[in-house]
Design a protein that fits this description.
Elements: H1 2-18, E1 26-27, H2 37-42, E2 45-48, E3 50-51, E4 61-68, E5 71-80, E6 86-91, E7 102-110, E8 118-127, E9 140-145, E10 152-155
Length: about 160
Amino acid sequence: MKGILFILLVFTFSSCSVLGVKTEPVALEQKETYDVSSIEQLASYYTEARIGDFIESDHFVIDTAIVYRNNLYVNVKHSGGCKDHDYEFIGSPAVMKSNPPKRSVMFVHNNRGDECEMWISKTIEVDLRELSLTKTKGSEITLLLQNYDYPITYIYQ
């Protein structure tokens, strides 16, 4: 049953992006009706966010971004299929003074020279803890992700 629910959820998100509809990020920790165990299991790549300078990235499209606990699950799409790809999540050292504070962040895709043209969809799990200002439970920050239309609220767990 959980598998069917997740497949329907992924299909819904995917169909919205095909129609050109942008999907807002969902803060799952604020809604008790979600079962995210299937989302955690679906992530095919894990990376830890880091603070640093932004770098160049190969082309990709962010389909959805879902925060759950201290992790961000980002569904990305890009061409490839012949080589493994690498992903990074970088936060700017500068933080905007607002309530809550805001930090610009960048998702980086490295295709490692993969010239294949198959359209790939992957869910990347990003540990966000390094991006928190105080690293204390309840600390909130808004992440402004490049190439994504919606702010992402992250509350340290």
